[in-house]
Specification:
The structure is a single chain. This protein is about 0% helix and about 45% strand. The protein has about 675 residues and is mainly beta. The chain has 6 domains: about 150 residues, Jelly Rolls (Sandwich), CATH 2.60.120; about 90 residues; about 90 residues, Sandwich (Immunoglobulin-like); about 110 residues, Peptidase S59, nucleoporin (c-terminal autoproteolytic domain of nucleoporin nup98, 2-Layer Sandwich); about 100 residues, Immunoglobulins (Immunoglobulin-like), CATH 2.60.40; about 100 residues, no CATH class. Strands 1, 2, 3, 4, 5, 6, 7, 8, 9 and 10 form a 10-stranded antiparallel beta sheet that branches. Strands 20, 22, 23, 25, 26 and 27 form a 6-stranded mixed beta sheet that branches. It is elongated.
C-alpha cells in the first residue's frame, strides 16, 4: 500500500470528527471515500453537542478509522431534518427524515453500519440537510468495537526546475522565460500563495533580461521555496539551480500577413503582405516557387509591407519571405492557388480569395446573373487551380463545362438557367433529352429552371412539349383521288409520354390555292399515340398544310408546324401481248395484241412503233380513255435504209405514218 499514516488508540470517540458546513447539496467530490483528503476541514470538538447553525445549509461529518476485525457496529444519530449515513468506503447505509436536499423531517435513531465495514481503513460519514428554522446534526452514541484512530501524514511537495525556453539561446535584444514546477499536495510559491490539491501541478514563470555581447554565456540561479500548509505538519523545500544561456545575435521575426496558407486568388494579380519585427533587417525578399521575385532594402519594422505581382499563371504556387540582418531568417512557406474568374461572374459566385482551405471548397458557386448558376453539391478540391474563363461556359440557356480539362469539377451539382421563355421546360444533355439518372429534382418557375446533375458536359433547355408532323407522301407517291393521311406526334420530351389529356387537341389546315383553309380537328389514336387526319385531292399539285396542337390545359406551349406534299397523276400502263419477244413470223403480217389503261380515267394516247432500227416507225395510234385491248395485223414493217440487195414493196393503211396508197422503194 502507498498509505502514509499512523494509528493511535481511538480515545474519545466523539472527538477528531472533521466537519464541512456549506449550502451545497452535492458536497465536495468523493467526500465519503477513504482517499478523500480532509486536511482543510475543521475539527469538531464534540459531535455529541449541537454546533451547527445556519438556515438552509448542509452539514457533513467525517471520521476515518482503522479496524483490525469487523463485528457488529452501531451508532446513534439525531437530525431535525433529513440525514444520510455512510460507512466503509462511501457506501450509503440509509436515509431518514427529509428524503431530498433541504426537505423537512426529523430523525433520532440507531444506525447499523456493519454491512459496509471491512478490515482496514473505513470512513463513517453523516450528511444533514437543513430545511429551515432550527438545525441539529449530532452523533450521540458509538458502538464500533476495536476501532483505531487514523492520522494522515501528508506527502511533502516537490520542486523541479524546468530550465530556460528557446533551447537556452538568449538574444541581446529579447527576453527569456525560465520556469519551475511546484507539485502538491499543497504548497505555496514565493511571492504568490497558492493552494494545490494532491497531485496538482503549478508552474511559475519569470522573465530574464539578457546581458553581455553576442556569443557570451550568461549564468543565472533559480531558487524555489515551498511551504506545505497541512494541519498535521509543515514541510519546506528549497532548490538552488545554476543555469546558463548563450547570448546570440538578434534574428528578424517574419510574420506572413496574407494571403494565408492554402488560400486562393480570384485573379492572377496578387499582393503579398508581411511584417518584420524584433530587429531591422538589411533587406527582405519575396520568393515564389523557390525563385527570388522581388527585394526591398532597409524595410521598416512593425509595419505592414507588401509586394504586388501581376500575371501569375493559373495553378498552385509556393511563396515565402527571406530577411537578412546580422543573421538570416526565413518565413514559413505558404501555398497559394491562382484562378481566372471572368468579370461576368457575380451574384452568388464564391470569392475564392476568402476560402480558408482551397483543398475543400464547400458550396462552390459560379454565377453569371440573369443567365446561369452552378452550385456544386460536394466540397471540391481546387488546389490545382482553374481557368474558369476557358473551362466553364455560362451563356443564355446553356451551361457547359470541359469535364476532361478540370476533372475535379466533374461532380454532382445544382444548375439554374435564368430567364427562359418556355411554357414548360425540358432539360437537354449534350443535345439529347436528359435521362432521369443524370438530371433530377427539376423545378421550373418564373422562367427559371433549376435541376441537379450527376456530372458535366453541356446542359440546356427546350420546350417540354414536342410536335413532329409527316404525311403518306413522305414515303409514297400518291396521286389525286387517293386517300392521303397526315400525322402529328405530340409528346412530352421529359417523360416521352403521348400528350392526350382532356382538353388537349391537334387540328390541321391546308393551303391549296394561296389561302389557308379553316382548321379541322384531327383524330386522336391512343393505340399508336398519334393524331391523324385523312383526305383526298382531286387535282394534282404541290400543297402546304399546317398542324396546330394545344395542351395549354397541362401547362404546355401551343405548338404548330408546316409541311408540304405533292399530289401526282398516275401514268397510263400498257402491256404488249403479241408478238412474243424473240419469235419468228412466217406469215405475211405481224399480229399485234396490246392492252392499255389509265387508272385515273384520264384520256390518253396509245401509239405503237415498229421497225428493225431506230428511229422506229409509228404503225398504230389511238386516243381514248379507260381500258382498251388492241388486236391489229401489221401488214408492212418499216425497214431501215441502207439494207443491201433488199427491195420491198410496202403497203400501209391509213394509220401508218407513210400514208395510205403510198409507196417507197428502199434499196
Amino acid at each position: 500500500s502507498d498509505l502514509n499514516a499512523t494509528f493511535d488508540t481511538l480515545g474519545n470517540w466523539y472527538e477528531h470528527w472533521a466537519y464541512n458546513d456549506t449550502a451545497d447539496c452535492s458536497g465536495p467530490e468523493n467526500w465519503t471515500r477513504i482517499h478523500y483528503d480532509q486536511g482543510l476541514w475543521p475539527i469538531a470538538a464534540d459531535v455529541q453537542s449541537d454546533t451547527w447553525s445556519g438556515d438552509n445549509t448542509d452539514y457533513r461529518l467525517r471520521r476515518p478509522i482503522y479496524l483490525p476485525t469487523v463485528s457488529g457496529s452501531v451508532i446513534h444519530a439525531v437530525s431535525d431534518d433529513g440525514i444520510w449515513v455512510y460507512s466503509g468506503d462511501g457506501q450509503l447505509v440509509g436515509n431518514a427524515g427529509g428524503t431530498s436536499c433541504h426537505a423537512g423531517g426529523t430523525s433520532n435513531q440507531d444506525w447499523n453500519i456493519t454491512k459496509n465495514l471491512t478490515v482496514g481503513v473505513n470512513v463513517i460519514g453523516l450528511w444533514c440537510s437543513e430545511a429551515g428554522g432550527g438545525e441539529n446534526c449530532q452523533v450521540t452514541s458509538w458502538d464500533v468495537p476495536g476501532a483505531y484512530r487514523m492520522q494522515n501524514i501528508p506527502t511533502p511537495p516537490s520542486v523541479s526546475f524546468l530550465g530556460a525556453t528557446a533551447e537556452g539561446a538568449v538574444s541581446s535584444e529579447t527576453t527569456q522565460t525560465p520556469s519551475y514546477l511546484v507539485q502538491g499536495p499543497r504548497g505555496t510559491d514565493n511571492p504568490a500563495t497558492i493552494t494545490l490539491e494532491s497531485g496538482q501541478v503549478y508552474q511559475v514563470n519569470w522573465t530574464l533580461n539578457a546581458s553581455g555581447s553576442i556569443g557570451d554565456v550568461m549564468t543565472y540561479a533559480v531558487l524555489a521555496n515551498v511551504t506545505l500548509l497541512q494541519q498535521d505538519g509543515t514541510y519546506a523545500v528549497a532548490t538552488v539551480s545554476t543555469q546558463t544561456a548563450n547570448v546570440s545575435a538578434p534574428v528578424p521575426d517574419i510574420s506572413i500577413m496574407g494571403p494565408g496558407d492554402l488560400r486562393g486568388s480570384n485573379t492572377p494579380n496578387v499582393t503579398f503582405w508581411y511584417n518584420v519585427s524584433t530587429t531591422a533587417p538589411n533587406n527582405c525578399s519575396l520568393f515564389i516557387n523557390g525563385i527570388r521575385n522581388a527585394t526591398t532594402d532597409s524595410p521598416s519594422i512593425d509595419t505592414p509591407l507588401s509586394w504586388s505581382v501581376i500575371n501569375l499563371p493559373v495553378g498552385p504556387l509556393n511563396w515565402s519571405v527571406n530577411c537578412t540582418a546580422d543573421t538570416e531568417a526565413n518565413s514559413s512557406v505558404f501555398s497559394l492557388t491562382i484562378f481566372n474568374q471572368p468579370h461576368t461572374y457575380a451574384g452568388q459566385t464564391t470569392n475564392l480569395s476568402q476560402v480558408q482551405d482551397i483543398r475543400a471548397v464547400g458550396n462552390l458557386t459560379a454565377e453569371v446573373p440573369q443567365t446561369a448558376l452552378i452550385k456544386w453539391n460536394e466540397p471540391v478540391n481546387l488546389i490545382n487551380g482553374t481557368n474558369f474563363a476557358l473551362q466553364v461556359n455560362m451563356s443564355p440557356n446553356q451551361v457547359a463545362l470541359n469535364s476532361s480539362g478540370i476533372l475535379l469539377l466533374n461532380t454532382s451539382a445544382q444548375l439554374t438557367l435564368f430567364n427562359l421563355t418556355f411554357a414548360s421546360a425540358a432539360i437537354f444533355h449534350d443535345g439529347q433529352a436528359c435521362t432521369a439518372t443524370t438530371c433530377s429534382d427539376k423545378i421550373y418557375s418564373g422562367g427559371n429552371l433549376t435541376f441537379n446533375v450527376t456530372g458535366f458536359s453541356s446542359y440546356s433547355a427546350a420546350e417540354e412539349a414536342n410536335l413532329t408532323i409527316w404525311d403518306d407522301t413522305d414515303t409514297l407517291d400518291i396521286n389525286r383521288n387517293r386517300n392521303i393521311s397526315f400525322y402529328a406526334n405530340y409528346t412530352n420530351i421529359t417523360s416521352g409520354a403521348f400528350i392526350n389529356a382532356s382538353g388537349t387537341y391537334c387540328e390541321i389546315a391546308f393551303n391549296l390555292t394561296g389561302d389557308w383553309s379553316s382548321y379541322e380537328k384531327m383524330n386522336m389514336s391512343t393505340l399508336v399515340a398519334l393524331y391523324n387526319y385523312t383526305r383526298q385531292f382531286t387535282q394534282t399539285g404541290v400543297y402546304s398544310y399546317n398542324i396546330l396542337c394545344n395542351a395549354s390545359v397541362m401547362g404546355h406551349a401551343i405548338l404548330n408546324a408546316t409541311d408540304g406534299l405533292a399530289v401526282n397523276n398516275t401514268a397510263p400502263w400498257v402491256v404488249l401481248h403479241l408478238p412474243v419477244n424473240g419469235s419468228n413470223v412466217t406469215l405475211s403480217h405481224v399480229r399485234l395484241n396490246i392492252t392499255a389503261n389509265d387508272t385515273d380515267g384520264d384520256v390518253y394516247l396509245l401509239q405503237v412503233w415498229a421497225g428493225n432500227a431506230s428511229p422506229y416507225g409509228l404503225v398504230f395510234q389511238n386516243v381514248t380513255g379507260g381500258l382498251q385491248n388492241i388486236s391489229y395485223n401489221l401488214t408492212a414493217v418499216p425497214v431501215a435504209p441502207g439494207e443491201d440487195d433488199l427491195v420491198l414493196l410496202l403497203h400501209f393503211d391509213n394509220l401508218s405514218n407513210l400514208g395510205e396508197n403510198g409507196t417507197r422503194m428502199v434499196d
